[in-house]
């Protein structure tokens, strides 16, 4: 009888720990292809989760061009095309890079520039991106009410060429506020 009580107590204690010790769910955003015509098909998701070393970014994407792509948090929660300098631009509704400190500089995820500068996204030979990265200066709380953007080209984390050379906006997702 004592063994049964100990076992039952252990199960209840374990269940209580499971509930109270459960980690929160990661923030997940569905990413879509974008063009001057609007928002296209889903390419998969990117999950964001705080860790003791910064924001863990875990992509689960397919259908992108092989290579390195710029990845950024943009100011506005929109992936719609908009007019910029007299031309319609894919996902321009997202605005510029998230820069709450108004640094006006692009120094990458480890520098003191735009907070929205995230580590570059690596896309494999089959168009898939699954390699997790870490952004040490930003947290999940910073993402709400903003867009996540994937650019066509790599990112050299500098202001030359403009915004690190990321190029056109090819995929976008919104994290609601």
Automatic annotation (TrEMBL):
EC supergroup of this enzyme: oxidoreductase
Catalytic activity: 2 superoxide + 2 H(+) = H2O2 + O2
Documented EC number(s): 1.15.1.1
UniProt signal peptide: 1-25
Keywords assigned by UniProt, alphabetized: Copper, Metal-binding, Oxidoreductase, Signal, Zinc
Superoxide dismutase copper/zinc binding domain mapped to chain residues: 44-175
Cofactor details (free text): Binds 1 zinc ion per subunit. Binds 1 copper ion per subunit.
UniProt-listed InterPro entries: SOD-like_Cu/Zn_dom_sf, SOD_Cu/Zn_/chaperone, SOD_Cu/Zn_BS, SOD_Cu_Zn_dom
Gene3D superfamilies from the UniProt entry: Superoxide dismutase, copper/zinc binding domain
Function: Destroys radicals which are normally produced within the cells and which are toxic to biological systems.
Record family assignment: Belongs to the Cu-Zn superoxide dismutase family.
Name recorded for this polypeptide: Superoxide dismutase [Cu-Zn]
UniProt organism field: Halomonas litopenaei
């Amino acid at each position: 009888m004592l063994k049964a009580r100990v076992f039952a107590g252990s199960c209840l204690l374990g269940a209580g720990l499971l509930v109270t010790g459960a980690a929160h769910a990661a923030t997940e955003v569905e990413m879509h292809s974008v063009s001057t015509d609007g928002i296209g098909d889903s390419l998969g998701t990117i999950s964001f989760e705080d860790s003791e070393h910064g924001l863990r970014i875990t992509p689960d994407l397919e259908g992108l061009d092989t290579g390195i792509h710029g990845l950024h948090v943009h100011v506005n929660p929109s992936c719609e095309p908009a007019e910029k300098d007299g031309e319609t631009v894919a996902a321009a509704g997202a605005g510029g890079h998230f820069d709450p400190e108004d640094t006006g500089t692009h120094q990458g995820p480890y520098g003191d520039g735009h907070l929205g500068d995230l580590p570059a996204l690596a896309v494999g030979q089959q168009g898939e991106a699954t390699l997790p990265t870490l952004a040490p200066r930003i947290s999940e709380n910073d993402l709400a009410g903003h867009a996540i953007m994937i650019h066509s080209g790599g990112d050299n984390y500098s202001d030359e060429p403009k915004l690190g050379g990321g190029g056109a906006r090819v995929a976008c997702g919104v994290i609601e506020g």
